[in-house]
Design goal:
3 domains, 29% helix, 12 helices, Flagellar_hook_control-like_C, FliK-like_C_sf, single chain, six-stranded antiparallel barrel, cilium, seven-stranded mixed β-sheet, Transcription Regulator spoIIAA, alpha+beta
């Protein structure tokens, strides 16, 4: 779905440099404090220059350590835009002669060696990556207003790829209703009563053929890991075969590209459609990694992902059911919100059957809770816990 001139060749992975442990509670607190400023044009006040050449800058009343151009002076006001929070907060620095991107971290503890926690600074918008460019370009108007009175605004440049993504995001904003989820074109299964394996296969096919991951599937095909016939079912391939040239500036196309960018940035997929004919369903799946956790690490020592899912269904007799699941390794926690007390009681009576089915599939039911819509919930966002 992305224009051809936005697709860059895959290059070798550069070994990671020694950096601050993201498991550091200080780093996590720093990321959480900055997260609400993502995509916003800000002003930073340079408070101090450290021995390694980095600076302490106050941004939105939050002290941050970052790299700035060598000409930066203590007490100066620096225009900044937060373009990414993970894996490390990254700012675009408005400087004369071009766009510069600088990583940031919390100020070091007293006496700490700055060389033990190096920060990187990159020139050019393209080097910040698509996800970061999307956040930056969403704030282009605000950034231009903040820089408009200064000379820096006349010299700040955005790469052709960045400009193209900015145009796509602007076109997406012209659409009436924002596209926040994939809309299924066909029911997941042909009829009610399908088993779990059949539903799982249907969901896999619905997501895989939605076009959301088309570019990655093309890359897999180029490497011989996917058949060309598998791409034929995706909307981009179908349009190409029919001779249709989709403009990325068409609001509908631009919205879909924006959804692709958001999916990549947030590691979250939302789908809505028919589970079977006449049975609507909404599904959300998000992958989260807690870098601070001490348990649940894979063989390489990296923290395992927690999968958070939310499933919404409305049945003729049971009414509305909202299921939230958290899967960590082989343990799952399930919380139901039922539309009536009778449905909640029915779900409780079948808890043992659910636990048995999960155990047979190799998954342990670590938590189970059912509430009716009228009962207060312990947590409006139980999957965040």
């Amino acid at each position: 779905m992305l224009p051809r001139d936005l697709v860059a060749p895959v290059g070798p992975v550069t070994p990671a440099r020694p950096a601050e442990q993201l498991a550091d509670p200080r780093q996590q607190a720093f990321q959480r404090a900055l997260a609400p400023q993502l995509g916003k044009a800000l002003h930073g006040e340079v408070l101090a220059k450290l021995s390694d050449g980095s600076f302490v800058v106050k941004v939105a009343n939050i002290p941050a350590r970052m790299q700035l151009p060598a000409s930066a002076q203590v007490g100066a006001d620096v225009p900044l835009t937060l373009v990414s929070v993970h894996p490390r907060p990254t700012f675009q620095v408005g400087v004369q002669g071009g766009a510069v991107f600088s990583e940031a971290g919390p100020p070091l503890p007293q006496g700490a060696d700055p060389s033990k926690a190096p920060l990187a600074m990159r020139e050019g918008a393209a080097s910040a990556g698509i996800g970061r460019a999307a956040a930056l370009l969403q704030a282009t108007a605000a950034g231009a207003a903040a820089l408009g009175a200064g000379a820096d605004a006349n010299h700040t440049t955005i790469s052709p790829a960045g400009q193209a993504i900015g145009a796509v995001l602007a076109a997406a904003g012209k659409a009436g209703e924002p596209l926040t989820s994939i809309v299924g074109r066909a029911p997941v299964v042909a009829a009610a009563g399908a088993d779990a394996a059949g539903i799982a296969a249907g969901l896999r096919q619905a997501l895989g053929k939605s076009g959301l991951f088309y570019e990655s599937h093309v890359a897999q095909w180029a490497q011989g890991a996917r058949l060309l016939s598998e791409l034929d079912a995706e909307p981009q391939q179908q349009a190409a075969r029919e001779g249709l040239r989709q403009s990325p500036l068409d609001p509908a196309v631009a919205q879909f590209i924006n959804l692709q960018l958001a999916t990549q940035e947030q590691a979250q997929v939302a789908w809505q459609g028919k589970l079977w004919p006449g049975q609507p369903m909404e599904l959300e799946i998000q992958r989260k990694v807690d870098d601070g956790q001490q348990e649940g690490r894979d063989e390489a020592g990296a923290p395992d992902a927690h999968w958070h899912s939310r499933l919404r269904l409305r049945f003729p007799e049971l009414g509305e059911i909202d299921a939230r699941l958290t899967l960590a390794g082989s343990r799952v926690q399930v919380q139901f919100a039922a539309g009536s007390d009778a449905t909640a009681a029915l779900l409780r009576r079948h808890m043992a059957g659910l636990a048995g089915a999960l155990e047979a599939a190799g998954t342990h039911l670590a938590g189970f809770d059912v509430r009716s819509s009228g009962a207060p919930r312990q947590d409006d966002h139980p999957n965040d816990g």
